[in-house]
Amino acid sequence: MARKQLLSYAKEDRASGQRRAASVDIPFLLLVLLLLGVGLVMLYSASSAQSEYDTNYAISTRYLQKQAVCAGLGLICMVAFSRLPTQFWERMAWPMYGISIVLLLLVLVAGESVNGARRWINVAGIQFQPSEVAKFTMIVLFARLTKGFGQSAKQFRYGVMGFGMALMGILIPLALEKHLSAILLMGMVAVVMMFIAGTRARWLLAGAGAAVLFVLVYISLMGYAGDRVTAWLHPEQDPGDTGYQILQSLYAIGSGGVFGLGFGKSHQKYLYLPFQYNDYIFAIVCEELGLVGALLIMLVFIAMILRGYWIALRATDRFSTMLAAGLTTLIAVQTVLNLGVVTNLLPSTGIALPFFSYGGTALAVNLGEMGIVLGISRQRRGR
């Protein structure tokens, strides 16, 4: 999808006779709800054994209940955000940016450690990850900067320094948190948005080279990151420790075959595969639904992502185009990275699968973001 085509649809001054859509884009809405529904069902199956173990075999729906509550909150946000004009997010871009930086810095001081990582904040008994809010904030800010820069995004001063300085304000606190997965995800989304905005490809390639160098240095300094790369390349060398999760994931995928073992009949979810309801839930999907079921779910993701870009193409202004494209790209990159990790095509990143993986903050934010895309679809150009 050429960036000129994306932004050519997003004229700041619409023709007077151009038609506005009265309702949200129904295909996109149905695809989101389908992924949410299937995701909750698969989360129940993947987490039931862990839930029983954690509750002394008293309840099998512990994780599903928590996820369902967050799904409900997310759906409320989706409906509410679908009715907000995009000008609201444009006005809120800089205030949200400041708040996100404060929250990320607060994690370093008062954050709670979960599974050895200090990335969560507890407010009134509610635990959430500021990094999830920061991802959304970065996309909103980049959309506003794109509108402000206009054709000047082709210049180094704006297309590289302007976007880069804004991005560093979020990435530096994340680096202090040692949150490599969020840095990787946000960096990839930022590159796509900068390319669409008009930043010259040669500068983006130079930035990608610098990013690779940063990752290599980061891995050499952070032992756990280096262990992940070693486990990715040679999981069989340490099957009882660093390579264990990868091997169990591959066992789950392989045992599913073409048609799967059947819903609820996974063997690996019985505490063999760590985080089977979180980062590695797609391995359970493959085991229970097989290659056919996994491909169908992937096709739904692809259809939703393509529809999101279709909405971006038909947005009525530059800000809305960039906002819809950025939010769609966020889902796309998360999905690709997660599937790559589960199948061992990529080293472990800790990035969840949207709408499927356990995580209340991520699910609620994802649904709210999809509500914004739906809101943009209300004012799309034509049908």
Give the domain tally: 1
- Terminal CA distance: 19 Å
Please compute the radius of gyration using only Cα atoms: 21 Å
Low-confidence stretches: 11-19
- Which percent range fits the helix content? 55-70%
Order of helices and strands: HHHHEEEHHHHHHHHH
Q: What is the mean pLDDT?
A: 87
**Major sheet summary line:** 3 strands, antiparallel
Question: What's the number of extended β-strand segments?
Answer: 3
Structural class of the secondary structure composition?
A: mainly alpha
Helix segment count? 13
Strand order of the largest sheet: 1-2-3
Categorize the overall geometry.
Answer: globular
Range of strand content: under 5%
What is the gist of this entry?
The protein is mainly α and 383 residues long. 68% of the residues lie in helices and 3% in strands. The protein has one domain.
What does this structure look like?
68% of the residues lie in helices and 3% in strands. The chain has 383 residues and is mainly alpha-helical. The chain has one domain (3-10, 21-378). A three-stranded antiparallel sheet has the order 1-2-3. β1 (112-114) and β2 form a beta hairpin. It is globular. The two termini are 19 Å apart.
